[in-house]
C-alpha cells in the first residue's frame, strides 16, 4: 500500500472566548496531519502560534512539503534533521508515532519507554479580564483544585487578590505571558506571594529576562516563551525553577522526551502545557504528565465542542485517552 500524507485545517469554537495579554481568540485553529503507512493510519494535531512567527497556512504547507520523504519511509528520527522544531514537525511526529503504535500493536507510551498513563489533575485556565469578571470566573471554578490565572500587567495585583478571594482553596498558577516589566516585578511578585501563588509563568519578555539570573523570587518562576528546547537550556536553568514543555515548541513528542530528561537533569521542574487545541493535540503531551509537577492540558475543556472521541474529564481530573483518541 502506498504511503500517503494529507493535511487538513480544522476549527473549534472556544466557549466564551479566550483572552491573554496578547489578545482574544474565539476559535482554536489547528493543523492535522494524516499519514497512511503500511495499512495503518496515524493522525497528529498542532497549533500554529503567531508569537513564534507561525501561520496556519505556513504550517500546513510545511507539513505538506514532507510528502515525498514520508512516501520514501522517513522515520520520526529522520524528521528531527529534516524539519525545524515547531508546530509543523509536532503534527507529523505525532502522526508517525500513531502509525508505529498501530503497526506494533502496542501503545505509544510503551514504545517510548514512558510510564503507564494514569489520571492527572489539569489546571483550568481563567482568561484575562478586569478583577470583577475574573473573580466571577474563579468563583464558578472554585471547586477545581488547580487554576491557571492569565495576567496582563497593570492591575494584576488587584486581579490576583480578587481570584484568591473567590477561590480560597485552589492552588493558583499565574501566567503573565511576558506582560510584566522589570520596574513592576517586585510589586507583582509580592502580590502573588501574598495570594499563595504556587508558580508564575513567564513574567518578563523573553528578550528581557536576563535580570532573573541570580534573582531570588518569593514564588517559583517558570519559563514558557523563553524556553523551546535543548538550545539555551543551561541559561534557562539559571533564571527559572520550572519550564513549560509544549510539543508545539519542541516539535513533537520525540524531541520533548529528550528535552524533558535534560531539563530534569539540570534540576528544573516540569510543567506540561499546551496551546489551545482539541484532544488529539493533548494526547502526546499527556504521556509526559507523570514527569510533571504541574499539568496544563485543559484545551478541550475550554472549547465549545471537542472532537470525538476525546479525553474524558472528571472535573479537572483528566483520564487516560481511550481507544480512538490518538493511538
Structural class label: alpha/beta
Q: How much of the sequence is in beta strands?
A: 15-25%
Mean pLDDT: 96
| CATH structural fold name of the largest domain | TIM Barrel
Rg from Cα = 19 Å
Order of helices and strands: EEEHHHHHEEHEHEHEEHEHHEHEEE
CATH superfamily of the largest domain: Enolase-like C-terminal domain
Q: How many E strands?
A: 14
What's the end-to-end separation, in Å? 20 Å
Structure description:
The protein is of the alpha/beta class and about 325 residues long. The protein folds into two domains: about 5-110, Enolase-like, N-terminal domain (Enolase-like, domain 1, 2-Layer Sandwich), CATH 3.30.390; about 120-320, Alpha-Beta Barrel (TIM Barrel). About 35% of the residues lie in helices and about 25% in strands. It is built from twelve helices and 14 strands. It has helices at about 55-65, 65-70, 75-80, 85-105, 110, 130-140, 155-165, 185-195, 235-240, 245-250, 255-265, 280-285; strands spanning about 5-20, 25-35, 40-45, 120, 125, 145-150, 170-175, 195-200, 220-225, 240-245, 270, 295, 315, 315-320. The strands form three sheets. It has an eight-stranded parallel sheet with strand order 5-6-7-8-9-10-11-12. Strands 1-2-3 form a three-stranded antiparallel sheet. A hairpin with a 2-residue loop joins strand 13 and strand 14.
Write the layout of secondary structure elements.
Elements (H helix, E strand, L loop, with lengths): L3 E17 L2 E15 L2 E7 L9 H9 L2 H5 L4 H7 L4 H18 L3 H5 L7 E2 L2 E3 L4 H10 L5 E5 L5 H11 L4 E5 L9 H10 L2 E5 L19 E3 L9 H7 L2 E4 L1 H4 L2 H13 L3 E4 L6 H8 L7 E2 L17 E2 L2 E2 L9
Helix pairs in contact: 1-4, 6-7, 7-8
